């Protein structure tokens, strides 16, 4: 029996592999679904990430789509509320009948859908999460972030401090999961390095006044101050440092401050951020000039102005676009939408993206983590364009991305 040039056995094998579609289905779009924050505390990052994914879909569709079919993104606002995500993803799977899933932005909204993904045995391209698959061990989850563990974000800060002669450390952390994970990583590395912890404080997420903590840190006279904070905290902490001073003993300050990666926050801080060494995912410079990144950021910047999202888009958008690139490479290479087939390909092959080559380990985390640390240098107030210029976001770690030296001690970088 021959059907459209395909014998029965070949067609049956194609169907089993998920690669064959009837003529009527071939014209249907490939649906990719996600829940992503458009409102709430994660909304700013979520909007910029979604814009990048829409750009990827437009680029792919302009070239004919995938497997001869257009790509359709279906996105729902999770409102930065983890309670909404299980319902959103159940709807995407059972009602919208999407072909593939992309996770929400960040760990907290993603964590509640992990049991569902495991139960249904589905592929999930997760978006800047942290350790969510460590216990679940689902073989079809892939995290796009440049880190694999809490130590990946802390190591460089402590390495820079030790090279400057540091022997002591203070740790200030929000009492929330992500910040606590970072603090745990910093303590582990500090213990291995023989750094003495002279101050350690966890603070409630509702804290708005950090004056007493900054005074206590100053009195402890640490060589390194490792801060694990969220956007509003990060701003308040740096304002307190400006008002009170941190002391001349501090060689390195920062590390795990969330918020400084986003243009509206760092532009609002301006000179208050000078000297801070902090994690990010991308900074402009020859060392991170991966194929396609400049073109993407130029196009993103124009669209960002129209949609009123992060005007530079250094932190999340390139990695969101990279999710699309990895999906396209896997689908194109395997000629399949079968989740098992795609997962096997992603595990076995190095993906080429605008944020560089990505290879995954057995848990779907980065096989070779490389988290850029930048030091903010010579920032002035109320100037967004300065972040496009060299010498402002100076990559000081890891060595392969380094564009300049960290200025130590901390107070010297604030002059």
Question: Your description of this structure?
Answer:
- The protein has 415 residues and is α/β, with parallel strands linked by helices.
- It is 39% helix and 18% strand.
- The protein has helices at 8-17, 23-26, 43-62, 85-94, 107-110, 114-120, 150-163, 177-193, 211-220, 231-244, 263-269, 293-307, 317-334, 339-348; strands at 2-3, 6-7, 30-35, 71-76, 100-105, 124-127, 141-143, 168-174, 196-203, 224-229, 252-257, 277-279, 351-353, 356-358, 373-376, 393-397.
- The strands form 4 sheets. A 7-stranded mixed beta sheet has the order 9-8-10-11-12-15-16, with helices on both faces. Strands 4-3-5-6-7 form a 5-stranded parallel beta sheet, with helices on both faces. It has a two-stranded antiparallel sheet with strand order 1-2.
- α3 (43-62) packs parallel to α13 (317-334).
- The chain is globular.
- Residues 1-25 have low confidence and may be disordered.
């Amino acid at each position: 029996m021959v059907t459209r040039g395909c014998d029965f056995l070949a067609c049956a094998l194609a169907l089993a592999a998920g690669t064959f579609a009837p003529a009527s289905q071939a014209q249907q779009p490939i649906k990719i679904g996600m829940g992503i924050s458009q409102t709430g505390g994660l909304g700013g990052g979520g909007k910029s990430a979604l814009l990048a994914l829409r750009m990827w879909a437009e680029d792919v569709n302009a070239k004919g789509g995938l497997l001869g079919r257009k790509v359709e993104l279906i996105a729902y606002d999770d409102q930065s509320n983890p309670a909404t995500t299980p319902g959103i993803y159940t709807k995407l799977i059972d009602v919208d009948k999407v072909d593939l899933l992309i996770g929400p932005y960040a760990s907290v909204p993603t964590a509640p859908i992990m049991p569902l993904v495991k139960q249904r045995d589905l592929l999930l391209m997760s978006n800047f999460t942290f350790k969510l698959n460590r216990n679940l061990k689902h073989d079809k989850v892939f995290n796009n972030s440049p880190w694999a563990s809490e130590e990946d974000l802390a190591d460089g800060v402590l390495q820079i401090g030790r090279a400057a002669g540091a022997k002591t450390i203070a740790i200030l952390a929000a009492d929330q999961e992500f910040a606590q994970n970072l603090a745990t990583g910093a303590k582990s590395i500090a213990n291995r390095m023989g750094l003495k912890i002279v101050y350690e404080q966890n603070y409630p997420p509702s804290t708005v006044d950090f004056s007493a903590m900054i005074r206590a840190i100053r009195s402890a006279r640490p060589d390194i101050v490792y801060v694990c904070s969220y956007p509003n905290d990060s701003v308040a902490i740096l304002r307190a440092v400006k008002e009170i001073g941190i002391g001349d003993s501090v060689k390195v300050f920062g590390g795990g401050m969330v918020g400084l990666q986003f243009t509206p926050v760092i532009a609002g801080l301006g000179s208050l951020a000078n000297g801070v060494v902090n994690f990010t995912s991308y900074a402009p410079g020859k060392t991170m000039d991966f194929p396609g990144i400049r073109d993407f950021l130029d196009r993103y910047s124009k669209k960002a102005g129209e949609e009123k999202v992060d005007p530079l888009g250094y932190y999340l958008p390139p990695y969101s676009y990279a999710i699309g690139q990895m999906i396209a490479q896997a689908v194109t290479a395997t000629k399949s939408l079968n989740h098992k087939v795609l997962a096997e390909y992603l595990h076995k092959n190095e993906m080429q993206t605008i944020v560089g080559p990505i290879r995954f380990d057995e848990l779907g985390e980065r096989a070779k983590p490389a988290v850029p640390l930048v030091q903010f240098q010579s920032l002035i107030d109320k100037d967004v364009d300065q972040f496009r210029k060299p010498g402002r976001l100076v990559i000081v770690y890891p060595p392969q991305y380094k564009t300049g030296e960290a200025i130590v001690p901390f107070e010297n970088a604030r002059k």
